[in-house]
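Interim report, section 4.2 (structural modelling).
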Amino acid sequence: MLIETIIKSTGNILRSEFEFLKSSSMKDKFDLVTSSDIKIEKMLIDYIATHFPDDSIYSEEAGSIGKASNRRWIIDPIDGTSVFVFGVPYFAISIALETENGIEEGYVYNPFSEEFYHSSKKDRCSYLNNKPIRVSRTSSIDESLVAFGFSADKTNIIRYLEEWGNLMASCRKALPLVTPSLTICNVARGRIDAYIDFGSSMEGKAAASLILQNAGGRISGYDSSSFDFREKGHICTNGNIGVEDYRTVK
Amino acid sequence: MLIETIIKSTGNILRSEFEFLKSSSMKDKFDLVTSSDIKIEKMLIDYIATHFPDDSIYSEEAGSIGKASNRRWIIDPIDGTSVFVFGVPYFAISIALETENGIEEGYVYNPFSEEFYHSSKKDRCSYLNNKPIRVSRTSSIDESLVAFGFSADKTNIIRYLEEWGNLMASCRKALPLVTPSLTICNVARGRIDAYIDFGSSMEGKAAASLILQNAGGRISGYDSSSFDFREKGHICTNGNIGVEDYRTVK
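Predicted structure of the assembly:
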């Protein structure tokens, strides 16, 4: 598999850049991460442009590249920039292939835990390190492990409390988590049961949404509408408990 | 160094238990983690009891072990149990040696990022993978990266918002993080500038508090009192910005 090779080799670079990110100035730190971001992005773009010369590419920093095509690669060189800066090894490289039928292939890689997730639409199965994965079988709210995507922005937090306070109080355990790609994959592999985020970006969830669906999970828009990965936000569940069950918990 | 050997070998076991924690039931998952916790704890206790037969030991699951002594080893076999369950590789093994002079030695190890922190009181320096570390030089609130220890418990979140809402809105970036041992060490190594948590346990911060202080940082109680690692909660800073500066930001 071509993509596996490039995503793992850029992952190794990202890993060493994370380890050596030391600087006493905050501004420098963010500049360094941006420079890692651009370096990784360039490698991924070069690879895809070489191997799939007829396809177009969309990437976070570089924007749209290449001729118009009904095959488009969506790249997130570092999903989880803020935790990268804060020193938490929970970030990923995410690559998705979009066609006129939606997301066709998805790849997510955490270079620290060496978790490589992938799925393709025609395969109808998802894999973690080449072994099939499935969502959890949890079927009650009070047994659910639920991730919320809030950062520590005061307005966001108040919004989560207002909209999800009952769920937080009723589920088995709720945790604030960032990095949509990996957290959606943690629903896909059955580690957690749901994940709610109103701020997730297209690049961070394009690949993971296919991985989740092919592992038996469901994903909707944040307003419970049908899922469009181009829109901000999402609600992921294991499919045994519906979005509406989570939304309306008393 | 004896402790480095045992902490790394138990870390490798913990890493593989994390990877293979798969179960469709929430209850099973927590039981499995508890069983990892007890297994790691037993290995650490056996090691210390063999090599330091005159010392006493305190560990989270096992409680107090051994004869009364003015040398006590404080063990946290998994700091960050909830993120372990949720699939986030940000947990650590923490070991501290306490004497009548306070924490004498501290060791913290993340088996995924292979970050091994240690410090000893007499050495007056702290190390990450055997290289000296220092806190950041950030000296203004608006450049500060600040971690908050809140889980998604509604009461906790409201308390953080009331007490720290101004700081969250004024600092460069705030993030909710768990795992006190590693997050305190991220202040010690200069990755972030402050870390505020009212719930941190003794076992999770005993070792890291020495690592922070010997890297130039400061730690106080959550109420800004002088630090006692036996009390819940803490405020850590790089020492360039004081606890009171963070507390009173408008």
